[in-house]
Specification:
Strands 7, 8, 9, 10, 11 and 13 form a six-stranded mixed sheet that branches. The chain has a five-stranded mixed sheet with strand order 2-1-3-12-6. The chain is of the alpha/beta class and 420 residues long. A hairpin with a 2-residue loop joins strand 4 (130-131) and strand 5. It has helices at residues 2-26, 39-55, 69-82, 94-102, 115-119, 123-127, 151-157, 165-174, 191-203, 221-235, 251-254, 267-274, 312-325, 328-337, 345-350, 360-367, 379-394, 398-414; strands spanning 29-35, 60-66, 89-92, 130-131, 134-135, 138-139, 143-150, 181-184, 258-264, 280-283, 296-299, 302-305, 371-373. The protein folds into two domains: 29-142 and 300-373, Periplasmic binding protein-like II (D-Maltodextrin-Binding Protein, domain 2), CATH 3.40.190.10; 144-298 and 378-414, 3-Layer(aba) Sandwich (D-Maltodextrin-Binding Protein, domain 2). It is globular.
Protein backbone atom coordinates (compact mmCIF):
# COMPACT_ATOMS: atom_id res chain seq x y z
CA UNK A 1 0.00 0.00 0.00
CA UNK A 2 2.79 2.37 0.98
CA UNK A 3 4.62 1.45 -2.18
CA UNK A 4 1.53 2.19 -4.34
CA UNK A 5 1.05 5.53 -2.59
CA UNK A 6 4.68 6.42 -3.16
CA UNK A 7 4.42 5.59 -6.85
CA UNK A 8 1.23 7.64 -7.11
CA UNK A 9 2.90 10.66 -5.50
CA UNK A 10 5.91 10.36 -7.77
CA UNK A 11 3.64 10.26 -10.83
CA UNK A 12 1.65 13.27 -9.63
CA UNK A 13 4.83 15.18 -8.92
CA UNK A 14 6.17 14.26 -12.36
CA UNK A 15 2.94 15.50 -13.97
CA UNK A 16 3.23 18.85 -12.21
CA UNK A 17 6.94 19.12 -13.03
CA UNK A 18 6.41 18.29 -16.70
CA UNK A 19 3.51 20.69 -16.81
CA UNK A 20 5.69 23.42 -15.35
CA UNK A 21 8.45 22.73 -17.87
CA UNK A 22 5.95 22.75 -20.72
CA UNK A 23 4.53 26.03 -19.48
CA UNK A 24 8.02 27.53 -19.35
CA UNK A 25 8.86 26.20 -22.80
CA UNK A 26 5.75 27.71 -24.32
CA UNK A 27 5.92 31.01 -22.46
CA UNK A 28 5.80 33.88 -24.92
CA UNK A 29 8.39 36.65 -24.66
CA UNK A 30 7.88 40.01 -26.35
CA UNK A 31 10.96 42.10 -27.02
CA UNK A 32 10.67 45.84 -27.60
CA UNK A 33 12.90 47.08 -30.45
CA UNK A 34 13.31 50.82 -31.02
CA UNK A 35 14.87 52.50 -34.01
CA UNK A 36 14.63 55.67 -36.09
CA UNK A 37 14.51 53.69 -39.37
CA UNK A 38 11.36 54.23 -41.38
CA UNK A 39 9.76 53.28 -44.75
CA UNK A 40 11.63 50.47 -46.54
CA UNK A 41 14.25 50.10 -43.82
CA UNK A 42 11.58 49.72 -41.12
CA UNK A 43 9.74 47.18 -43.27
CA UNK A 44 12.95 45.18 -43.66
CA UNK A 45 13.66 45.18 -39.92
CA UNK A 46 10.15 43.94 -39.24
CA UNK A 47 10.68 41.13 -41.76
CA UNK A 48 13.85 40.08 -39.96
CA UNK A 49 12.03 40.06 -36.63
CA UNK A 50 9.27 37.88 -38.10
CA UNK A 51 11.83 35.51 -39.62
CA UNK A 52 13.44 34.98 -36.22
CA UNK A 53 10.08 34.10 -34.68
CA UNK A 54 9.15 31.78 -37.55
CA UNK A 55 12.48 30.02 -38.02
CA UNK A 56 14.46 30.28 -34.79
CA UNK A 57 12.32 30.79 -31.70
CA UNK A 58 8.51 30.79 -32.01
CA UNK A 59 8.22 31.85 -28.37
CA UNK A 60 9.90 35.19 -29.02
CA UNK A 61 8.05 38.04 -30.66
CA UNK A 62 9.83 41.29 -31.47
CA UNK A 63 7.76 44.45 -31.46
CA UNK A 64 9.36 47.13 -33.68
CA UNK A 65 8.72 50.80 -32.87
CA UNK A 66 9.86 53.60 -35.14
CA UNK A 67 10.86 56.79 -33.31
CA UNK A 68 11.14 60.06 -35.29
CA UNK A 69 14.77 60.90 -36.06
CA UNK A 70 15.02 64.12 -34.03
CA UNK A 71 13.51 62.44 -30.97
CA UNK A 72 15.65 59.34 -31.36
CA UNK A 73 19.00 61.13 -31.49
CA UNK A 74 17.72 63.68 -28.96
CA UNK A 75 16.43 62.65 -25.56
CA UNK A 76 13.93 59.86 -26.25
CA UNK A 77 16.26 56.96 -25.51
CA UNK A 78 18.16 58.53 -22.63
CA UNK A 79 14.95 59.64 -20.92
CA UNK A 80 13.41 56.19 -21.32
CA UNK A 81 16.48 54.42 -19.95
CA UNK A 82 16.64 56.82 -17.00
CA UNK A 83 13.02 55.99 -16.18
CA UNK A 84 13.61 52.25 -16.49
CA UNK A 85 11.32 52.08 -19.50
CA UNK A 86 13.77 51.75 -22.36
CA UNK A 87 13.53 49.13 -25.11
CA UNK A 88 15.16 45.71 -24.98
CA UNK A 89 16.93 46.29 -28.32
CA UNK A 90 18.02 49.59 -29.82
CA UNK A 91 20.18 51.11 -32.53
CA UNK A 92 23.17 53.24 -31.58
CA UNK A 93 26.33 54.65 -33.18
CA UNK A 94 29.87 55.50 -32.00
CA UNK A 95 29.14 59.10 -30.91
CA UNK A 96 26.34 57.79 -28.66
CA UNK A 97 27.66 54.39 -27.59
CA UNK A 98 30.16 55.63 -24.98
CA UNK A 99 27.49 57.39 -22.94
CA UNK A 100 25.29 54.29 -22.87
CA UNK A 101 28.22 52.13 -21.78
CA UNK A 102 29.16 54.71 -19.14
CA UNK A 103 25.61 54.59 -17.80
CA UNK A 104 25.60 50.79 -17.65
CA UNK A 105 22.87 50.50 -20.26
CA UNK A 106 24.55 48.18 -22.78
CA UNK A 107 24.86 44.44 -22.25
CA UNK A 108 28.33 42.99 -23.03
CA UNK A 109 27.96 40.55 -25.93
CA UNK A 110 31.28 38.69 -25.93
CA UNK A 111 29.86 35.50 -24.40
CA UNK A 112 27.24 35.20 -27.15
CA UNK A 113 29.80 34.98 -29.97
CA UNK A 114 31.79 31.92 -30.93
CA UNK A 115 35.45 32.46 -31.96
CA UNK A 116 34.47 31.65 -35.56
CA UNK A 117 31.67 34.22 -35.55
CA UNK A 118 33.97 36.88 -34.09
CA UNK A 119 36.63 36.16 -36.71
CA UNK A 120 34.09 36.78 -39.49
CA UNK A 121 33.79 40.48 -38.53
CA UNK A 122 36.26 42.99 -39.92
CA UNK A 123 38.52 44.16 -37.07
CA UNK A 124 37.77 47.85 -37.66
CA UNK A 125 34.06 47.17 -37.26
CA UNK A 126 34.45 45.42 -33.90
CA UNK A 127 36.91 48.06 -32.71
CA UNK A 128 34.20 50.68 -33.04
CA UNK A 129 31.94 48.85 -30.61
CA UNK A 130 34.49 47.56 -28.11
CA UNK A 131 34.86 49.70 -24.99
CA UNK A 132 36.91 48.92 -21.93
CA UNK A 133 37.68 45.52 -23.44
CA UNK A 134 34.03 44.54 -23.87
CA UNK A 135 31.97 44.16 -27.03
CA UNK A 136 29.04 46.46 -26.33
CA UNK A 137 27.14 46.38 -29.64
CA UNK A 138 27.14 44.59 -32.98
CA UNK A 139 28.16 46.60 -36.06
CA UNK A 140 25.84 45.79 -38.96
CA UNK A 141 27.09 48.01 -41.78
CA UNK A 142 29.98 50.16 -42.93
CA UNK A 143 29.31 53.29 -44.97
CA UNK A 144 32.52 54.57 -46.53
CA UNK A 145 33.57 58.03 -47.71
CA UNK A 146 35.10 58.88 -51.09
CA UNK A 147 35.36 61.74 -53.59
CA UNK A 148 32.65 61.76 -56.26
CA UNK A 149 33.12 63.91 -59.36
CA UNK A 150 31.35 65.06 -62.52
CA UNK A 151 33.14 63.24 -65.36
CA UNK A 152 31.85 65.60 -68.05
CA UNK A 153 32.94 68.74 -66.14
CA UNK A 154 36.44 67.33 -65.72
CA UNK A 155 36.66 66.32 -69.39
CA UNK A 156 35.58 69.76 -70.56
CA UNK A 157 38.26 71.37 -68.37
CA UNK A 158 40.92 68.87 -69.45
CA UNK A 159 41.43 67.68 -65.88
CA UNK A 160 41.87 64.34 -64.20
CA UNK A 161 40.26 63.65 -60.83
CA UNK A 162 42.60 64.78 -58.03
CA UNK A 163 44.82 62.43 -56.09
CA UNK A 164 46.50 65.01 -53.83
CA UNK A 165 45.24 67.86 -51.66
CA UNK A 166 46.91 70.49 -53.85
CA UNK A 167 45.24 69.01 -56.93
CA UNK A 168 41.87 68.99 -55.18
CA UNK A 169 42.23 72.67 -54.26
CA UNK A 170 43.39 73.59 -57.79
CA UNK A 171 40.61 71.57 -59.45
CA UNK A 172 37.98 73.06 -57.15
CA UNK A 173 39.12 76.57 -58.08
CA UNK A 174 39.31 75.76 -61.80
CA UNK A 175 35.84 74.21 -61.88
CA UNK A 176 34.06 76.93 -59.93
CA UNK A 177 31.72 79.05 -62.03
CA UNK A 178 28.86 81.45 -61.34
CA UNK A 179 26.46 78.49 -61.36
CA UNK A 180 28.63 75.69 -60.01
CA UNK A 181 30.80 75.20 -56.94
CA UNK A 182 34.08 73.38 -57.28
CA UNK A 183 33.60 71.19 -54.20
CA UNK A 184 30.80 70.31 -51.82
CA UNK A 185 31.71 68.82 -48.45
CA UNK A 186 30.42 68.83 -44.91
CA UNK A 187 31.29 72.15 -43.28
CA UNK A 188 28.27 72.71 -41.02
CA UNK A 189 28.89 72.94 -37.30
CA UNK A 190 27.61 69.49 -36.36
CA UNK A 191 28.99 66.05 -35.52
CA UNK A 192 28.97 64.94 -39.17
CA UNK A 193 31.71 67.43 -40.04
CA UNK A 194 33.95 65.47 -37.66
CA UNK A 195 33.16 62.21 -39.45
CA UNK A 196 34.21 63.76 -42.78
CA UNK A 197 37.34 65.36 -41.28
CA UNK A 198 38.84 62.28 -39.62
CA UNK A 199 40.14 60.53 -42.80
CA UNK A 200 42.31 63.57 -43.57
CA UNK A 201 43.69 63.46 -40.02
CA UNK A 202 44.42 59.72 -40.07
CA UNK A 203 46.11 59.81 -43.50
CA UNK A 204 49.07 61.52 -41.86
CA UNK A 205 49.15 59.10 -38.95
CA UNK A 206 47.23 61.42 -36.65
CA UNK A 207 44.51 60.66 -34.14
CA UNK A 208 42.24 62.58 -31.82
CA UNK A 209 43.54 60.82 -28.70
CA UNK A 210 46.80 59.44 -27.44
CA UNK A 211 47.23 55.69 -27.75
CA UNK A 212 45.91 55.06 -24.23
CA UNK A 213 42.80 57.22 -24.87
CA UNK A 214 43.73 59.41 -21.90
CA UNK A 215 45.19 62.45 -23.61
CA UNK A 216 44.99 64.73 -26.62
CA UNK A 217 46.51 63.85 -29.97
CA UNK A 218 45.49 67.12 -31.58
CA UNK A 219 48.90 68.75 -31.33
CA UNK A 220 50.29 66.51 -34.09
CA UNK A 221 51.60 67.71 -37.43
CA UNK A 222 48.97 65.48 -39.04
CA UNK A 223 46.21 67.52 -37.40
CA UNK A 224 47.86 70.81 -38.34
CA UNK A 225 48.11 69.68 -41.97
CA UNK A 226 44.50 68.45 -42.16
CA UNK A 227 43.18 71.67 -40.64
CA UNK A 228 45.30 73.68 -43.05
CA UNK A 229 43.66 71.79 -45.92
CA UNK A 230 40.24 72.92 -44.69
CA UNK A 231 41.57 76.47 -44.30
CA UNK A 232 43.02 76.50 -47.81
CA UNK A 233 39.87 75.06 -49.40
CA UNK A 234 37.75 77.72 -47.75
CA UNK A 235 40.06 80.64 -48.59
CA UNK A 236 40.24 79.42 -52.19
CA UNK A 237 36.55 80.30 -52.50
CA UNK A 238 35.76 76.98 -54.16
CA UNK A 239 33.62 75.32 -51.47
CA UNK A 240 29.84 75.23 -51.73
CA UNK A 241 29.12 77.14 -48.50
CA UNK A 242 25.35 77.25 -49.00
CA UNK A 243 24.26 73.98 -50.62
CA UNK A 244 20.66 73.78 -51.79
CA UNK A 245 20.08 70.69 -49.64
CA UNK A 246 21.98 68.42 -47.24
CA UNK A 247 25.67 68.46 -48.18
CA UNK A 248 25.71 64.67 -48.47
CA UNK A 249 22.80 64.48 -50.91
CA UNK A 250 24.30 63.21 -54.17
CA UNK A 251 21.73 65.22 -56.14
CA UNK A 252 23.93 68.26 -55.56
CA UNK A 253 26.55 66.68 -57.81
CA UNK A 254 24.24 64.89 -60.23
CA UNK A 255 22.22 68.05 -60.93
CA UNK A 256 25.28 70.20 -61.63
CA UNK A 257 25.44 72.29 -58.45
CA UNK A 258 28.99 71.13 -57.79
CA UNK A 259 31.86 69.51 -59.72
CA UNK A 260 33.11 67.37 -56.82
CA UNK A 261 31.52 66.09 -53.64
CA UNK A 262 32.85 64.22 -50.63
CA UNK A 263 30.13 61.66 -50.07
CA UNK A 264 29.51 58.06 -49.09
CA UNK A 265 28.40 54.65 -50.25
CA UNK A 266 24.82 55.51 -49.30
CA UNK A 267 24.70 57.66 -52.46
CA UNK A 268 25.07 54.80 -54.93
CA UNK A 269 21.47 53.59 -54.83
CA UNK A 270 20.19 57.08 -55.57
CA UNK A 271 22.71 57.49 -58.38
CA UNK A 272 21.60 54.22 -59.95
CA UNK A 273 17.87 54.78 -59.52
CA UNK A 274 17.46 58.51 -60.11
CA UNK A 275 20.55 59.64 -61.97
CA UNK A 276 21.54 56.71 -64.16
CA UNK A 277 21.92 59.06 -67.14
CA UNK A 278 24.57 61.16 -65.37
CA UNK A 279 28.30 60.56 -65.78
CA UNK A 280 29.55 60.39 -62.21
CA UNK A 281 32.91 58.94 -61.14
CA UNK A 282 34.41 58.17 -57.76
CA UNK A 283 37.99 58.02 -56.45
CA UNK A 284 39.55 57.53 -53.00
CA UNK A 285 39.93 60.67 -50.92
CA UNK A 286 43.03 62.60 -52.05
CA UNK A 287 46.19 62.52 -49.91
CA UNK A 288 48.58 65.31 -48.91
CA UNK A 289 51.38 63.85 -51.01
CA UNK A 290 52.56 60.60 -52.55
CA UNK A 291 54.13 59.42 -49.30
CA UNK A 292 50.66 58.96 -47.79
CA UNK A 293 48.05 56.29 -48.28
CA UNK A 294 44.44 57.31 -48.69
CA UNK A 295 42.05 56.63 -45.84
CA UNK A 296 38.31 56.58 -45.42
CA UNK A 297 35.90 56.60 -42.51
CA UNK A 298 33.41 53.88 -41.67
CA UNK A 299 30.08 55.06 -40.40
CA UNK A 300 27.05 52.94 -39.79
CA UNK A 301 24.61 51.92 -37.12
CA UNK A 302 24.99 49.26 -34.48
CA UNK A 303 22.61 47.09 -32.48
CA UNK A 304 22.72 46.93 -28.70
CA UNK A 305 20.81 45.32 -25.83
CA UNK A 306 19.49 47.03 -22.72
CA UNK A 307 21.42 45.39 -19.88
CA UNK A 308 18.69 46.32 -17.39
CA UNK A 309 15.96 44.49 -19.25
CA UNK A 310 14.61 41.29 -17.66
CA UNK A 311 14.60 39.93 -21.22
CA UNK A 312 18.23 40.88 -21.98
CA UNK A 313 19.32 37.30 -22.64
CA UNK A 314 16.59 36.71 -25.24
CA UNK A 315 17.33 40.10 -26.81
CA UNK A 316 21.04 39.27 -27.04
CA UNK A 317 20.28 35.93 -28.69
CA UNK A 318 18.13 37.67 -31.29
CA UNK A 319 20.68 40.31 -32.28
CA UNK A 320 23.47 37.71 -32.25
CA UNK A 321 21.45 35.64 -34.71
CA UNK A 322 20.72 38.67 -36.88
CA UNK A 323 24.19 40.22 -36.83
CA UNK A 324 26.54 37.23 -36.48
CA UNK A 325 24.77 34.04 -37.58
CA UNK A 326 22.10 34.57 -40.23
CA UNK A 327 23.37 35.76 -43.61
CA UNK A 328 20.18 36.37 -45.58
CA UNK A 329 18.98 39.35 -43.55
CA UNK A 330 22.19 41.39 -43.62
CA UNK A 331 22.71 40.54 -47.28
CA UNK A 332 19.25 41.96 -47.96
CA UNK A 333 19.97 45.01 -45.75
CA UNK A 334 23.24 45.92 -47.46
CA UNK A 335 22.44 45.04 -51.07
CA UNK A 336 18.69 45.55 -51.53
CA UNK A 337 17.29 47.79 -48.81
CA UNK A 338 20.30 50.11 -48.99
CA UNK A 339 23.92 49.97 -50.11
CA UNK A 340 26.54 49.57 -47.42
CA UNK A 341 29.29 47.10 -46.77
CA UNK A 342 28.38 44.24 -44.45
CA UNK A 343 30.71 44.11 -41.47
CA UNK A 344 31.14 40.37 -41.98
CA UNK A 345 33.71 39.13 -44.48
CA UNK A 346 31.69 36.04 -45.41
CA UNK A 347 28.77 38.14 -46.65
CA UNK A 348 31.02 40.35 -48.76
CA UNK A 349 32.68 37.26 -50.24
CA UNK A 350 29.36 35.53 -50.97
CA UNK A 351 28.16 38.62 -52.86
CA UNK A 352 31.44 39.60 -54.50
CA UNK A 353 29.86 40.01 -57.94
CA UNK A 354 27.41 42.57 -56.55
CA UNK A 355 30.23 44.55 -54.94
CA UNK A 356 32.06 44.72 -58.28
CA UNK A 357 29.19 46.39 -60.15
CA UNK A 358 29.53 49.99 -61.29
CA UNK A 359 31.03 52.45 -58.83
CA UNK A 360 30.93 49.80 -56.12
CA UNK A 361 34.06 48.30 -57.66
CA UNK A 362 36.05 51.42 -56.72
CA UNK A 363 34.88 51.19 -53.13
CA UNK A 364 35.50 47.45 -52.99
CA UNK A 365 38.91 47.41 -54.63
CA UNK A 366 40.43 50.72 -53.56
CA UNK A 367 38.65 51.98 -50.43
CA UNK A 368 37.34 49.03 -48.43
CA UNK A 369 40.03 48.15 -45.91
CA UNK A 370 41.38 51.70 -45.60
CA UNK A 371 38.55 52.82 -43.35
CA UNK A 372 38.88 53.94 -39.75
CA UNK A 373 35.92 53.54 -37.38
CA UNK A 374 33.74 56.55 -36.77
CA UNK A 375 34.97 58.42 -33.70
CA UNK A 376 33.63 57.12 -30.40
CA UNK A 377 33.71 60.03 -27.98
CA UNK A 378 31.55 62.05 -25.57
CA UNK A 379 29.59 65.03 -26.87
CA UNK A 380 32.06 67.44 -25.24
CA UNK A 381 34.88 66.03 -27.37
CA UNK A 382 32.81 66.35 -30.52
CA UNK A 383 32.15 69.99 -29.66
CA UNK A 384 35.89 70.63 -29.24
CA UNK A 385 36.54 69.10 -32.67
CA UNK A 386 33.68 70.95 -34.32
CA UNK A 387 34.95 74.27 -32.92
CA UNK A 388 38.50 73.48 -34.06
CA UNK A 389 37.40 72.73 -37.63
CA UNK A 390 35.21 75.84 -37.78
CA UNK A 391 38.11 77.91 -36.45
CA UNK A 392 40.44 76.59 -39.16
CA UNK A 393 37.96 77.35 -41.93
CA UNK A 394 36.84 80.80 -40.86
CA UNK A 395 39.31 82.35 -38.40
CA UNK A 396 42.73 80.76 -37.92
CA UNK A 397 45.30 78.85 -39.91
CA UNK A 398 45.82 75.14 -39.33
CA UNK A 399 48.56 75.52 -36.73
CA UNK A 400 46.68 78.01 -34.58
CA UNK A 401 43.42 76.05 -34.76
CA UNK A 402 45.25 72.84 -33.82
CA UNK A 403 46.91 74.50 -30.82
CA UNK A 404 43.56 75.77 -29.55
CA UNK A 405 41.87 72.41 -30.05
CA UNK A 406 44.75 70.57 -28.40
CA UNK A 407 44.57 72.76 -25.29
CA UNK A 408 40.79 72.39 -25.03
CA UNK A 409 41.07 68.60 -25.25
CA UNK A 410 43.82 68.57 -22.60
CA UNK A 411 41.56 70.65 -20.34
CA UNK A 412 38.76 68.17 -20.94
CA UNK A 413 40.90 65.22 -19.87
CA UNK A 414 42.02 67.05 -16.75
CA UNK A 415 38.50 66.62 -15.33
CA UNK A 416 37.35 63.47 -17.13
CA UNK A 417 37.60 59.93 -15.81
CA UNK A 418 34.97 58.23 -17.94
CA UNK A 419 35.19 55.65 -20.74
CA UNK A 420 36.22 56.48 -24.31
Amino acid sequence: MKKSLSVFLVLVLAMFTCGSIAAQASEQVTLEFWSFHSTTEAEALQRYCAKYTAEVNPNVKINYTQIPWDDYIGTKLTTAFAAGEGPDIFFTCPPQLARYVEAGVTLPLDDYLTPEERADFRPAALAATTLDGKLCAYPIEAELLALFYDIDAFKEAGLNPPSTWDEMIADAKALTTDKRAGLTMRIADDSTVVFHYLPFLTMGGGDVFTEDFKGSGLGSQANIDALQLYHDLMTAGAINVKPSRSADDIGILAEGETAMQINGTWSLVKLEQQYSDKHIGVVPLPVKDASMKSASAAGGWQMAVNARSPRADEAAKFITWLCAQDKECLTDWCTVVKFAYPTRNSIVEANKDFFQKGLRAVFTNQILGTEKPELRAPADVYKILQDMIQDAMYSSDGKTAAEKGDQKLKDFFADYDGII
